[in-house]
């Protein structure tokens, strides 16, 4: 795998996405759609979609952060799906009351982001289709797990989970959820997704919208029929 000047696997999300797209070339014949997890997964997903000449859309998933450790996901929500890791929740002191409050808050944010990113565009069709779910990395795997379950619920024919880097344990456990998991880098020393990137700067809402607009250059408006992966009301 190409390395950067400071020996990290990836320069940035764009370079990681190109490499990931090349690793997914065998799926091109299945005419997949690429659904990226905002925000950081979207620049990666754009490059995957570019390589595969596939439509790009977002699948908004919100992590349920642990008390005092908001970046540590003890669970996640997606459209019609709530996932909580009971062992991680117990270990971090995430009580039922805490989780209930966080779920309600994140449902509101999920709906807001869905509208902000896609606007008036209809979602990419999911029913009966091969879907490649892309994120910039797999740490606990909670958000990816919720995404895969939401797509199963929406009737996807196959769900392929793809990320440049991931925790070996999370990648292995997610193989029971997705039809296939493609992860380029699973370091035994894994501590955080950002440690695999030279540039892991935050992705903005504006960048997410720009990526979706850019993908329309080779696919047209991402319609192809409306899916039922829509935010809960």
Quick synopsis:
Helices cover 37% and strands 19% of the residues. The protein has 233 residues and is an alpha/beta fold.
Structure description:
With 233 residues, this protein is of the alpha/beta class. The chain has a single domain (13-218), classed as Rossmann fold, CATH 3.40.50. Helices cover 37% and strands 19% of the residues. It contains 7 helices and 8 strands, in the order αβαββββααβαβαβα. It has helices at residues 13-23, 41-52, 86-92, 96-118, 142-153, 168-174, 205-219; strands spanning 33-36, 56-58, 62-66, 69-78, 81-84, 130-134, 158-165, 180-185. Strands 2-1-6-7-8 form a 5-stranded parallel β-sheet, sandwiched between helices. Helix 1 (13-23) packs across helix 2 (41-52) and helix 4 (96-118) crosses helix 7.
CATH architecture designation: 3-Layer(aba) Sandwich
Shape verdict: globular
Radius of gyration: 17 Å
- The number of E-state strands comes to 8
Mean of the pLDDT scores?
Answer: 90
The major pleated sheet works out as: 5 strands, parallel
Q: What is the CATH class designation? A: Alpha Beta
Low-confidence stretches: 1-6, 221-228
The topology string of helices and strands comes to: HEHEEEEHHEHEHEH
CATH T-level topology: Rossmann fold
């Amino acid at each position: 795998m190409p390395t950067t000047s400071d020996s990290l696997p990836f320069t940035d999300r764009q370079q990681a996405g190109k490499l990931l797209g090349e690793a997914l070339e065998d799926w091109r014949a299945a005419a997949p759609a690429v659904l990226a997890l905002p925000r950081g997964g979207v620049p990666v997903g754009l490059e995957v979609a570019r390589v595969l000449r596939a439509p790009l859309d977002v699948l908004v998933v919100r992590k349920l952060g642990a008390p005092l450790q908001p970046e540590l996901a003890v669970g996640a929500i997606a459209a019609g799906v709530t996932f909580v890791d009971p062992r991680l929740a117990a270990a971090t002191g995430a009580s039922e009351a805490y989780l209930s409050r966080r779920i309600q808050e994140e449902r509101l944010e999920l709906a807001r982001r869905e509208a902000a990113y896609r606007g008036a565009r209809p979602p990419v069709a999911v029913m009966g289709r091969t879907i490649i779910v892309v994120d910039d990395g797999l740490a606990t795997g909670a958000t990816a797990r919720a995404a895969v379950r939401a797509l199963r619920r929406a009737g996807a024919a196959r769900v392929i989970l793809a990320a440049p880097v991931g925790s070996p344990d999370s990648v292995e456990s997610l193989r029971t959820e997705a039809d296939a998991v493609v992860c380029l880098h699973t370091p035994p020393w894994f501590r955080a997704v950002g440690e695999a990137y030279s540039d892991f700067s935050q992705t903005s809402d504006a960048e997410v919208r720009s990526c979706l607009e850019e993908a329309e250059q080779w696919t047209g408006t991402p319609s192809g029929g409306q899916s039922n992966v829509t935010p809960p009301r």
